[in-house]
Amino acid sequence: MAKEEKALAPEELARARAALAAAQGKRRLDLVLEARDPQALVRALPADELYFTIRDVGLGDAALLVQLASPEQFKTFLDLDAWRGGAFEPRRALPWLRIARAGAHLDPKAAARWARKLDALDREVLYLVLRDALRLHDLEEDPDPELVSDRFMRTPEGRFVIEFEVEGTEYLAVRGLLDDLYARDAFQATRLLSAIRSELPSELEETALRWRTGRLADLGFPSLEEALSWFAQPPRAPAHPAGPPPARPPGFLLARLGAGSPLDAAAAALPAGERDVLEREIVAAANAVLVADAVDPSDLDAVRGAFAAARAMLELGLARLAGADPDRAAQVLAETPVKRLFQEGFGRVLELKWRAERLLAGGGAGTRAAPLLDAPLGEAVAALAAKRPRYFPGLEAPRDEWGTLSAGGHEPRRFLAAAELDRTVAALGLAEGLAGLAQALGLAGGNAEGPLAPRLSTLYLTALANERLGRAFRPDPLARAELPAAARALAAIDDPRLASGGEAGALLLELARAGAAELAPLAEGGAARPEHLSAVLVRDPS
């Protein structure tokens, strides 16, 4: 009979959680190993947060955490690391199996811990690992099989010759696993090997996936359908009372609330029990982002980003429902389910997405693939109109850098703060004004495609150059020989057509003057450089 495990006293566990929350990297590992009862502490923590800690420290350095983990926690480690897109990847499981088994042949306690983990592993997972790593020869069918590998063994009961299709540490992991399976129950080990030759891997993988889904659901990981429902417009009906939070122990890594935001301040006003429930619900929100965005759990930066995005949506939702009133915020947080808060916050982002889509549909801002508006506005509109609206960090560039490659050279990402939402609202207002100007000036609706299509300031400056050279105000490409004359004609730009455009008109004028300044060296006959040719459209000499 297994020895009953000791549990930490609530006060001791609370102190340990607080210390772990304040620590980082290998210091967290040290805190666990320095605890009065490291195994009891490990097993009192959520399995997913242990997994993230092990990944942060490194599997090799955190081997003892793997070995001290309970069988259920160990299965969660494999659930998070060895599955990608609903498919089991056996080779990703092998390092975990090797680390969990390490030292088992030297230390009876380590042997007992490994034995319990091995007994608890899903049969389907063992099958998929061995099927990927072994080639079986049934000696009843072929007493003298032809072997192609120098790594092979004859099973103890004499039924099979096994060739190993893995090398190095992977071979050691699989060989150790086989040895232990036969040592514990030779009959069951033989049945397992026989199943490799007879059972369909797709059916066993489907069963393994169901077990995995159930375990992760207990930790607060939703199904894909449920995760996507968080990213929906908030319903008009009043919020229903929240269901029970995920049945997970209190953690330390993902949802430790501080005192730096309205959400944190509102949470501080809750009774201790409600605060613990809120932390678990925030983890559920972060897990919804992980699942909906198909984040790789082994990518800790992406995991942290998902958590930050979930917190941001909750902050935005709380601000929508409570404004800037701290007392009202505490009341809203106590009465409103976290999912509804998340949807209220995402609803604010959705409203911007719809504005961006209307702007693109109106024809004055180009397309997502070929934005007409200068960077970073064109990129910001395109990011908002994506299937999952995103924030474009180029909006934070100084205004004198707008219209340059650097302003457009950023990757869209999730919204992480209310200031980013406010910045995007202002940018959309500018974009709408510029789109209206583009249509009024006859500069919208071109056929150019792709990210290198000319932007509005280039089209405007080209049309203005044509006008000042005695032609119609149209963005027809200039001949290269005309560039010096165009540079002189554009030496000073004051256009009453832009003066009526408000802030958008002032921005276009500013961008046009910057482009004209690039052309200025050509006014006295200087050689044309690439940057000169980007300020206006130039006709191909051929």
Explain what the structure shows.
It holds the Pfam family DUF6178. InterPro entries: DUF6178 (IPR045750). The protein is mainly alpha-helical and 542 residues long. It folds into four domains: 173 residues, no CATH class; 122 residues, no CATH class; 96 residues, no CATH class; 80 residues, no CATH class. It is 58% helix and 3% strand. The protein has a three-stranded antiparallel β-sheet. A two-stranded antiparallel sheet has the order 1-2. A hairpin with a 5-residue loop joins strand 4 and strand 5. Helix 13 packs across helix 15 and helix 22 crosses helix 25. The relative contact order is 0.06. The model has no long low-confidence stretch (mean pLDDT 90).
Topology:
Layout: H1 10-22, H2 26-33, H3 38-43, H4 47-57, H5 63-68, H6 71-81, E1 83-84, E2 87-88, H7 90-101, H8 108-120, H9 123-133, E3 134-138, E4 152-154, E5 160-164, H10 168-184, H11 186-198, H12 201-218, H13 224-230, H14 262-268, H15 272-292, H16 300-322, H17 326-335, H18 338-361, H19 377-384, H20 405-408, H21 418-440, H22 456-468, H23 483-489, H24 496-499, H25 502-519, H26 530-535
Antiparallel strand pairs: 1-2, 3-5, 4-5
Helix pairs in contact: 1-2, 4-6, 6-8, 7-9, 7-10, 9-11, 9-12, 10-11, 13-15, 14-17, 15-16, 16-17, 16-18, 18-21, 19-21, 21-25, 22-25
